[in-house]
Amino acid sequence: MKTTLKTLVAAVAITSSLNIASAADYTMRLAHQLPGSHHVAQAIEAFADEVESESDGRIEVEVFGGAQLYEPTEFHAAVARGHIEAASIVNLLWGGTIPEMQVFNIPYLMTSSHQLEQFPASEAAEMLNNKMASKGVKNLAWLLDANNAVFTSSDNPLIAPEDFQGIKIRGLSRVFDAGLIAMGASPATMPGSEVYQGLQTGVIDAAVTSADAVYSRRYFEVQDYAVASNLITVYQNIIVNPQWWSTLPEDLQSLVESAASNAAGVLLPKTDEIDPAGIAKLKENNMQVTLLSDDQVEALSTAMQPAVEEAFIESTDDGEKLIELIKQL
């Protein structure tokens, strides 16, 4: 029933947008899963405003947030098949389609502000852009969602590898979870919408997500401790349908690419500091927050990274090459 309702909503929204946008030469319907308050959602709105303004209204960008049109797992197919022109898709969802996109789940491989600034124009990014193209979509931007992670828990803070022994924790992906297993934890697969209840009822003991998500999802109501570090990187990719893209004149293509680049630039961190605003919100809500020291980061990296790298390389064709390219940043 849920899927049927989503499909009906999508059909109505798309039909309405076609009628409204008749004055524009081109229409870009862009779907994403984020709430309007999310920093990436705000960057997407800024992108849409810039495209419309700089094109003098020749391109109308209609943003459908909060998974209004399709479920996040349907974004890729919807864009590739031309059902909508664009979507912003989190890299965590590419795992089964493009296993190499899981490279960002390797702990402490690519999280520094310098690496993040260099990455979009790198050979590593080009390799991944080409892999997206082979799956029927064009990537316009690498929008940084997060380059930090927070381990939340109730009984004790999860600081050292031995603290994870026997802990039931909501994992992120099969590749990342190899690192949790290496420390003795038991990762569980669970939709984000069910994590709060899982923590509340004790189905799981802990979770890993960004500081912003800990706050927005109110984990602080059911978890006492937060341990933060620049653990992994999460991107959102603005993807477009190649056939639609080819209909745009070159000047409009350049304009859209410039707006996408500007949106990505706004999201880049200025320092390697761990989300000060997000951490402050957790402290304000009575969570005991630990920011890992360099030695503590090294201990977690030593415990997790080899297992995750092995799982990543086993699941990919170009995993080793991609890791080496990223290490050169």
TrEMBL record:
Keywords: Signal
Entry annotated with the keyword Coiled coil: no
Pfam families (UniProt xref): DctP
Single GO BP term: transmembrane transport
Organism superkingdom: Bacteria
Signal peptide, first to last residue: 1-23
Amino-acid biosynthesis among keywords: no
Protein name: C4-dicarboxylate ABC transporter
